[in-house]
Write a structure and sequence with these properties.
By secondary structure, this protein is α+β, with helices and mostly antiparallel strands. Helix content is about 30%, strand content about 30%. It has four helices and twelve strands; from the N terminus they run ββαβαβββββββαβαβ. Helix 1 runs antiparallel to helix 4. The longest helix is centred in the first third of the chain and has 39 residues.
Length: about 240
């Protein structure tokens, strides 16, 4: 095929190679789009849950997926001796801890972890911030989330006394011997204990998948352009 002195002369091997690469890239792009749609759908469901009325957390075992991001309330007594400090938590550029204390639900043997809020770390890391734990029966309200909280591990020593780099529910169960719900409550009560409670919902991550999809589609287009450019040659006119 010749157009304005340019002839399109593709080779079989280059056509086959380009076709395979482009198809694979388009499939990967479509897969990323489907992942984005799944995450957006899940995020819509979680947003809907967050607007629903608060539910009472029972003393019987619950499922995380039934309560995640729901507003919950629970009545019980704190067990301060099992308080831990979740390290490497940043608030407004300052390093600190999330202070997590288990709450014994009612008169049962079931407990739930309460993330009571953030406190700044002292320059001397041997000094842990103190926040008064209410005595007696209390009612705690907040947002239910996963009790397992894992971030980047900065050292091989994951637990140092009350200071933990990551919160692993099974590890905590073994360390304390407590019976625990699979959820943790991000406390929202206005308690005058000096702790900061500004909880940020993680986004769905759909935008990352959309970005990856765009990259795959862009690369497919680039391969197509390169294939066309390499397959086109200019015809030289012959002089009489």
């Amino acid at each position: 095929m010749t157009i304005s002195g340019w002839r399109f002369t593709p080779r079989l091997w280059s056509t086959a190679t380009a076709a395979v690469v482009i198809v694979i890239m388009l499939q990967l792009g479509n897969w990323q789009l489907s992942r984005a749609r799944e995450k957006e759908s899940r995020q819509e469901q979680l947003d809907l849950r967050s607007r629903q009325p608060a539910v009472a957390l029972p003393a019987v075992p619950v499922k995380l997926e039934d309560l995640q991001y729901r507003h919950v309330e629970v009545s019980g007594v704190y067990v301060p001796k099992h308080t831990i400090y979740l390290d490497n938590k940043i608030n407004q550029g300052m390093a600190g801890y999330h202070i997590i204390t288990p709450l014994k639900i009612g008169t049962s043997s079931m407990h739930v972890l309460i993330n009571r809020g953030w406190a700044a770390a002292d320059r001397d890391r041997r000094k842990l911030p103190q926040a008064a734990v209410p005595d007696g029966t209390v009612v705690v309200s907040g947002i239910a989330t996963s009790a397992t909280q894992k971030t980047l591990e900065l050292s091989d020593e994951l637990v140092s006394g009350q200071v933990w780099e990551n919160l692993d529910l099974e590890r905590y169960r073994i360390a304390t011997g407590l019976t625990l719900q699979p959820v943790m409550i991000l406390q929202q009560d206005d308690v005058k204990d000096g702790l900061v409670r500004q909880w940020v919902r993680p986004d769905s991550g759909a935008s990352r998948n959309l970005g990856y999809a765009f990259q795959w589609f862009a690369m497919a287009l680039a391969v197509l352009i390169i294939y066309v450019v390499l397959s086109v040659k200019r015809e030289h006119s012959k002089s009489n």
